[in-house]
Amino acid sequence: MNDDKRIDGKAFSASVREKVKRQVETLQRDHGITPGLAVVLVGEDPASQVYVRNKAKQTVEAGMRSDEIRMEATATQAEVLEVVDRLNADPGIHGILVQLPLPDQIDETAVLDRIDPAKDVDGFHVINTGRLQVGLPALVPCTPRGCLMMLKDRLGDLSGLNAIVIGRSNIVGKPMAMLLLQESCTVTIAHSRTKDLPELCRRQDIVVAAVGRPHFVKGDWIAEGATVIDVGINRVPKDDGKTRLVGDVDYDEAVERAGAITPVPGGVGPMTIACLLANTITACCMANGIEEPA
Ligand code: NAD
Predict the structure, then answer these.
(1) 67-97 pLDDT, tens digit each
(2) Distance, CA 167 to ligand 1 centroid (Å)?
(3) 114 and 152 share a domain?
(4) Dihedral, CA atoms, 41, 275, 235, 7, nearest 10 degrees?
(5) Based on the domain organization, do 210 and 244 belong to the same domain?
(6) Is 242 in the active site?
(7) 19 CB less than 6 Å from ligand 1?
(8) Number of folded domains in the chain?
């Protein structure tokens, strides 16, 4: 029975990527436009290399143009800004993503602020943050966009539901809370100074955990039938000396009470790249004044 409660992020992200592929075909056929996504990687961080390779692969599979710009770990700030300027000016590129973290000599904020907000498919630019805040069309960070898609797919109309977002980071917690507010949820944002968190959680229809602590949210924090979205990705040691990934929620406990819950791995994680592609479609359509194909 608990299998029915499991929200399958792998299958859902595949359906989002299929939709993106159809949208690309429509944009090419009806408007002669191929959406383009550029990913900039500075240095040789192994995890970043894997992310960038996966992003490029899925961009190509969706039928989009994919540019990968790899720069030495010793690249200067001016060199990185020059690349961003070039991509800003390229009409065939609709989305620009600079893979984080950047090497120490580079000011991350300065680089992210240099990206044309209309091409900011990560949704980190302060213009997009502000537009989301006031309810204007905006490019929204990929992970929260993916979480919202999953919630709407499972629950339909979210209006009037109580939702808690645990974590207030700029890339997950805050935009997630704003998206839920836009859906007319009553939103609580919890953080490291929040009091009585278990009790607060027990009052919620929706719990989104973005804390970065393994199994932080316990089963008895979850109201009977609530929907739980676990954003956390934590690597913990196993008995055999290897490691495994776990979420911020104690899945085995929480699944007994939740109505629906995302596992880790295989929940929110796969949605992030799918939403990056979806954001590139959004950016491409906004730039060309076209309504997004269905
Ligand atoms: P972060 O470290 O920037 O923010 C963590 C937040 O948790 C902070 O706002 C902090 O106030 C809150 N917090 C810390 N201790 C707490 C406590 N005891 N009680 C309540 N709140 C507490 O992290 P982030 O970048 O938002 O990421 C959160 C998690 O999500 C991480 O595990 C990260 O790896 C994961 N993540 C996953 C994806 C994905 O694609 N699935 C994307 C981004 C982040």
Answers:
(1) 999 999 999 999 999 999 999 999 999 999 9
(2) 5
(3) no
(4) -170
(5) yes
(6) no
(7) no
(8) 2
Which residues constitute the domain of residue 116? 31-136
Instruction: Residue 131: give its domain's CATH number.
Output: 3.40.50.10860
Q: Give start and end residues of each alpha helix (H) in 223-267.
A: 251-254
What one-character DSSP code corresponds to residue 220? Answer: G
102 and 41 co-located in one domain: yes
Is the CB–ligand 1 distance for residue 171 below 6 Å?
yes
Cα-to-centroid distance, 34 and ligand 1 (Å): 35
Q: Which one of the listed residues 23, 58, 116, 122 is annotated catalytic?
A: 122
Of the candidates 175, 174, 177, 153, the residue with the CA atom closest to the CA atom of residue 164: 177
Whether 49 is catalytic is no
286 belongs to a structural domain? no
Per residue in 236-269, pLDDT tens?
A: 999 999 999 999 999 999 999 999 999 999 999 9
Domain membership flag for residue 9: no
> pLDDT by residue (tens digit) across 18-31?
999 999 999 999 99
Count of CB atoms situated within 10 Å of the CB of 76: 13
pLDDT confidence band for 2 (50 / 70 / 90): confident
Q: What is the pLDDT of residue 32?
A: 98
SS3 letters for 120-167?
ECCCCCHHHHHHHHHCCCCCCCHHHHHHHHHHHHHHCCCCCCEEEEEC
For the chain, give the percent of residues with pLDDT over 90: 99
Active site residue 99: yes
